[in-house]
Design a protein that fits this description.
The protein has a seven-stranded antiparallel sheet, with helices on both faces. The protein starts with a strand and ends in an 8-residue tail after the last strand. The longest helix is centred in the middle third of the chain and has 17 residues. By secondary structure, it is of the alpha+beta class. 27% of the residues are buried. Strand 3 and strand 4 form a beta hairpin. It contains four helices and nine strands, in the order E-E-H-E-E-H-E-H-E-E-H-E-E.
Length: 155
């Protein structure tokens, strides 16, 4: 799971094994011309989306399996629908996406690529939806893993 580094009551750190799993995961964006996001690998397909939406950032977020705990299928589907409604209510442009590790057997996690979600907002949404981390990409179009800052009671 996660452990507190002691640096701040709101900082969490992924275990090395969990960080590696997130970094190996493939984030499939189900757009007109589907594309793949992976930590540390530039994805030029984001350029057109950034231009279309006049922004320079995006975030993959899911509501599945809060705090890394497997939920049953129906709970996950309901959480996903709630996240979609929340993003829509916030006026955010979101494309359907799916996170899937290529080999570890963890179930695929549907989510959204949210166009224009800044780094701080990504942290807030991740904490709100009880996610250990999100994939965030800036103008350089190189996805990075953002570990979620969560209050102590969420650990």
């Amino acid at each position: 799971m996660i452990y507190n580094t002691g640096a701040s009551p709101f900082m969490t750190t992924l275990s090395p094994e969990l960080r590696k799993a997130f970094e190996e995961t493939q984030y499939h964006v189900l757009h007109q011309a589907p594309f793949l996001l992976q930590v540390g690998q530039a994805q030029t397909a984001l350029s057109a989306l950034y231009q279309q939406h006049q922004t320079d950032c995006s975030c993959f977020i899911t509501a599945f399996n809060p705090m890394g705990e497997l939920l049953d299928k129906d709970e996950n589907i309901e959480r996903h629908a709630q996240l979609g409604r929340a993003l829509g209510a916030a006026g955010m442009a979101a494309l359907p996406a799916v996170a899937q590790h290529p080999a570890n057997g963890w179930p695929a996690e549907p989510g959204y690529l949210v166009i224009g979600m800044g780094r701080d907002d990504a942290q807030r949404w991740a904490a709100q939806w009880e996610q250990l981390a999100v994939l965030w990409t800036s103008a350089d179009m190189v996805p990075e893993l953002l570990e979620t800052r969560v209050p102590g009671w969420m650990r």
